[in-house]
């Protein structure tokens, strides 16, 4: 595979313009999925370090775990990580609720009947229910973002 | 070899189950007690050690670990296998993704078991 082909493929994944809602949902679902998986890996490694890291497979002293936890907390308590976690909240809530829409669509529950491609070429797959669920997942994700920002930065004090 | 159809069915099933297990995890951190209290190591009802002491909550973390390990790395596999077609490439991606996911499950299970023992009086 040439570099040009790779760039072309990445473009079809990551540039959602000009193709309608489904392409936006596709790109966001992929990007959020990869981001959440990377966070998952980091989270498992970080929590593993608290009980002694990969070298320790026996019970560490309680005070040791408490010390590492407190140090990790102090290290992670900065605006950059808080902002990252807030964005992650957005991505998780979008991925989860949009995922529910995808499962429903996969089993044909919220799909319209197929129609002939006639002008103005509205895709029959994007039913009102589908579009409503997509925007609902965007709303949920924004709500999660605002809630997380409030928890970390105490702007609104909800 | 599991068929692609069944893998994707499992992808959907694990996805829906993550809604439950992830919901429990997020609730213990954000909803059931204030965030500052949940982030304490001990001496608060939903602090780290309190969560791991509770067999049900620790079990739900283990479930979440297994579910996300499968769901996340199956998703990664699908994305990577779309990038390029070829039998060897496909097998290599499947193998790599399985190894990393299994390693994370083992490492995460160790964390949960140790933390549960550490938290138990």
Q: Architecture of chain A, according to CATH? A: Up-down Bundle
| Span of the ends, CA to CA of chain A | 52 Å
Q: Low-confidence segments of chain B, ≥5 residues, pLDDT <50? A: none
Give the second-level CATH assignment, the architecture of chain B: Up-down Bundle
Q: Can you tell me the CATH topology of chain A?
A: 3 helical TM bundles of succinate and fumarate reductases
Shape of chain A: elongated
Question: What's the domain count of chain A?
Answer: 1
Average pLDDT over all residues of chain B: 94
How far apart are the termini of chain B? 44 Å
Q: What quaternary form is this?
A: heterodimer
Integer-rounded radius of gyration of chain A: 21 Å
Instruction: Give the count of helical stretches of chain A.
Output: 5
Number of helices of chain B: 5
Strand content of chain B: under 5%
Task: Describe the overall structure.
The complex is a heterodimer of chains A (158) and B (121). With 158 residues, chain A is an all-alpha fold. In chain A, 70% of the residues lie in helices and 0% in strands. The longest helix of chain A has 30 residues, at 21-50. Chain A is elongated, with a radius of gyration of 21 Å. In chain A, 20% of the residues are buried. Chain B has one domain (4-119): Up-down Bundle (3 helical TM bundles of succinate and fumarate reductases). Chain B is 83% helix and 0% strand. Chain B has 5 helices and no strands. Chain B has helices at residues 4-31, 35-38, 48-53, 55-83, 87-119. The relative contact order of chain B is 0.12. The model of chain B has no long low-confidence stretch (mean pLDDT 94). The A-B interface holds A 1, 6, 9, 13, 30, 33-34, 36-37, 40-41, 44-45, 47-48, 50-52, 54, 57, 59-60, 62, 65-66, 69-70, 73, 92, 96, 99-100, 103, 106, 147, 151 and B 12, 15-16, 18-19, 22, 30, 35, 39, 41-42, 48, 65, 68-69, 72-73, 75-76, 79, 82-84, 104, 107-108, 110-111, 114-115, 117-118.
